[in-house]
Design the sequence.
């Protein structure tokens, strides 16, 4: 076995070990029930088996306003024939008196809908500030939570692809790592909000 084969085998073993450990640490997304601006009730159970993004925001938050076009672009990029493969819900909380979250999003040209009066849900998801965006996989488990306000953050697209995944491309991951000495990046990081190493995000195929 030559040195490249040994390196690929090592990286593959390390990756699979990390994936198994990380999968066992994922937390189930807390169930919720909230109304949208039209009074329709939405439950987490309604999205069972689907890839879901929750965007916690407030109408007064400038960083939320900055991020939302990027999230909307992500939402539209994963919509085919009018049906979104990637489900996305805004959840407004800490709302000022008289604020109208649904109208605010519409005026900003944002196409995904928002649920309202989401303070209890924000608490259940341990949201501490705005914006907070949560990526939930098809098993209903929280894969990634981020406070980014950058609408062009490439990790948003990577995370979306990640929760839409069908299989892990370990061969491609190993090949990309070889020569880049990225084996150490396969280790889990210490940020409890990021349940998977961001280094893995590009290697899931949709």
Sequence:
């Amino acid at each position: 076995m030559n040195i490249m084969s040994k390196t690929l085998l090592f990286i593959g073993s390390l990756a699979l070990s990390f994936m198994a450990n990380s999968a066992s640490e994922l937390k189930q997304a807390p169930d919720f029930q909230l109304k949208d601006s039209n009074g329709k009730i939405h439950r987490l159970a309604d999205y069972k088996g689907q890839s879901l993004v929750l965007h916690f925001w407030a109408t007064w938050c400038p960083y939320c306003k900055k991020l939302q076009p990027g999230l909307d672009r992500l939402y539209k990029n994963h919509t085919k024939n009018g049906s979104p493969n990637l489900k996305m819900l805004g959840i407004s909380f800490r709302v000022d008196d008289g604020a109208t979250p649904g109208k605010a999003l519409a005026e900003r040209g944002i196409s995904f809908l928002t649920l309202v009066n989401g303070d209890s849900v924000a608490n259940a998801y341990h949201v501490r500030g705005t914006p907070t965006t949560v990526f939930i996989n098809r098993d209903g488990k929280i894969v990634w939570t981020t406070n980014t306000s950058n609408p062009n953050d490439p990790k948003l697209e990577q995370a979306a692809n990640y929760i839409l995944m069908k299989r892990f491309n370990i061969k491609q991951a190993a090949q990309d790592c070889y020569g880049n000495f990225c084996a150490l990046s396969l280790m889990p990081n210490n940020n409890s909000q990021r349940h998977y190493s961001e280094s893995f995000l590009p290697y899931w195929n949709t």
About this structure: Confidence is low (pLDDT under 50) at residues 6-24, 179-206. The domain at 3-205 is CATH 3.40.30.10 (Glutaredoxin). The two ends are 32 Å apart (CA to CA).
